[in-house]
Specification:
about 400 residues, 2 domains, 16 strands
């Protein structure tokens, strides 16, 4: 999608920022790469693209890669040696007092902090103040248009069907007394992904009982773990349509093969309550047209889980941005691993996925949300109780 220069300049003017300075070296700044339309393209030298609050954008590229930014509007300057680079960056920013870059003070948001410290020091040495481009990224890189939202909904419907088919598949095997392993279930799910036209960056998580206590557990062929009656099963699956500019959906559901013990059922009830508190935080703020930030959603969710006595067992952020990569460049629901103070803007897609993890078991519930202008939508069913997996 082409950069909307007039809209960016309007936002810069409202925020009293002199410009947005995009910078990349060798793919080190995936945000700038995406905005410049260079994803999947090979570049080997530093480039700068400056969007001022007023006036035409300007490009600075290396002499051996002069055409790297040709898809973007603006006049082009080329450099070769390092001294020439320094002078031309100085000229590029002449008269500029403040620029936004992919920078986060003290790397508070590492997902955003993509410009290296040395480059930030260099820009500051020119007398230019560097501020975070976080909300600009959220508005102009991470937000989805209607076509992208449609791909998310399509992927979500397919994931929910695969989830239902998987629990039914496991139940049929257990009821028949047949041996079935986590890895075998995962491979069957991958076949259903292919049949549904879904792609993903890695295979889904299929985790039984104690393995569900590891949030990023991955079954393997060389250490197969059987699924058995009277055990928990966690499924975490993510995917997108195999079409250009499609965005991800990402869900997690839990089931139990039989009647769950109170300890597991109670823990699951707590994360459901926490999840719904996070959803309510977003929906109420958006409906009231009030700003809501990633850390606030994490805090609303985490407070419920902590109050129930499980705070120490909730060991990751509440949710992450979704995009063309499963972990997008937008706002994360996080006041635990980081303090994400970026705003959830219209078009934002993200997960809410609290979990409780112990050595004996783990539970997680994961849903997706999309923020609109006046409302925020959960884009699929919310699990309320553990799925009952039949065993006879």
């Amino acid at each position: 999608m082409p950069l909307d220069i007039p809209a960016i300049q309007k936002t810069l003017a409202v925020d009293h920022v002199d410009g947005w300075l995009l910078y990349d070296f060798h793919g080190s700044n995936p945000v700038a790469v995406s905005l410049a339309g260079l994803a999947g393209k090979h570049t080997t030298r530093r480039w700068y693209y400056f969007i001022p609050a007023t006036g035409a954008p300007r490009k600075l590229v290396h002499a051996i890669e002069p055409f790297v930014l040709d898809s973007l509007p603006g006049e082009r300057e080329a450099y070769a040696g390092r001294r020439q680079l320094e002078q031309k960056v100085t000229d590029l920013l002449q008269g500029t007092k403040t620029v936004a870059m992919e920078y986060s003070p003290e790397c508070a948001i590492p997902y955003l902090s993509r410009v290296d410290a040395g480059t930030v020091e260099f820009i500051r040495r020119l007398g230019v103040r560097v501020i975070s481009s976080g909300d600009l990224v959220g508005q102009f890189e991470a937000a989805w248009d209607e076509a992208a939202i449609a791909t998310h909904h399509a992927a979500s419907r397919k994931l929910y069907k695969i989830k239902d088919d998987t629990f039914a598949f496991v139940g049929a095997k257990l009821a028949a007394g047949e041996r079935i392993t986590e890895f075998a279930v995962q491979q069957q799910m991958l076949q259903w992904f292919r049949d549904a036209g879904l792609v993903a960056d890695s295979a889904p998580i299929v985790a039984a009982q104690e393995h569900a206590g590891n949030p990023h557990y991955a079954p393997t062929a060389d250490r197969p773990r059987e699924l058995r009656p009277n055990e928990l099963l966690l499924l975490d699956l993510w995917g997108k349509l195999d079409t250009p500019r499609a965005v991800y959906a990402d869900i997690t559901w839990c089931g139990f093969a039989g009647a769950p013990p109170a300890e597991i059922a109670n823990a699951f009830g707590v994360i459901v309550a926490g999840r719904d508190a996070g959803v309510a935080k977003v929906q109420q703020a958006v409906a009231a047209r009030l700003p809501v930030r990633g850390w606030e959603v994490d805090r609303a969710t985490r407070d419920v889980i902590t109050a129930a006595g499980y705070g120490d067992q909730f060991i990751h952020r509440t949710g992450h941005s979704l995009g063309e990569e499963v972990h997008g460049n937008g706002v994360h629901m996080d006041d635990y691993e980081t303090h994400d103070d970026r705003q959830l803007l219209p078009g934002t897609g993200f997960t809410i996925e609290p979990g409780i993890y112990t050595p004996a078991f783990g539970v997680r519930t994961e849903i997706n949300m999309v923020v609109g202008a006046t409302s925020a939508e959960v884009t699929g069913p919310r699990q309320q109780t553990l799925v009952t997996i039949r065993t006879r």
